[in-house]
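#structure-requests
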Amino acid sequence: MNREAIAELLRRVRARTLAPEAAIERLRRLPFERLGEAMVDTHREVRTGIPEVVFAPGKTDELLERIVRKLLQRHGTALVTRLPADRFRRLRRALPAGVYGAAGGVLSIRRRPAAPPGPGPIAVVTAGSADVPVAEEAGATLEHLGWPVARLYDIGVAGLHRLLDAAPRIDAARVAIVVAGMEGALPTVVAGLTPRPVIAVPTSVGYGASFGGVAALLAMLNSCSGGVAVVNIDNGFGAACFAHRLCTSAGEFRAKGAEGDDNAKDAKRGGGRTRTGGRRGR
């Protein structure tokens, strides 16, 4: 269930092609549905703009299949993250056709094409090729949400000329998700080259003193460039969701601002008075 589906229910009730009781019955199950030990949040897209996403680890194949089918029933779309290739091979006969990206372990199933949420693209940048799996989790999530993605891989600071060559494509993006392990310096450098917001993703790539990505995480948290937000280690999905919210919120505020400007102009033309229905009181 999403805003469009609720609006369609209300239109049908107004047009008297759907009984109010039938609409109430459909809305009655809006908050969540219980599937054994899982509580599927079918209301999340209405609240946040993003339907519940399925994190594959820790779930049996049977439960994973049931959750995906329920999300498809309610939303017409489902996204599964951290799904290994061997599990996908077991599940693909049981689940509807989708797009699986082995590099990022992401399965995207849509019964209808994603509507572009706004002009893109969103850039996904990696320091090295070893960071690509986390970057692909971000890229596949963004594409599932309807965003075009500009992938700029293996342009870390060890060869700064590669980053400078890619800088115009980063400037052309709405946001840059920058994925890096080792010393985690790339997001700081990117933020020093572009006016775009930078979402930094530390990865667990590195030698012993990288402490499984903690060194990169701390470096990014201590960035000397302004405008850098940091998500958790290897959290490409979280970075993609933050980029989606950032861009869609900006578009909504611009639309509301334009509407407010129009209302202000109308009020000015009307002498500052707002007319309403009914007779004026004395």
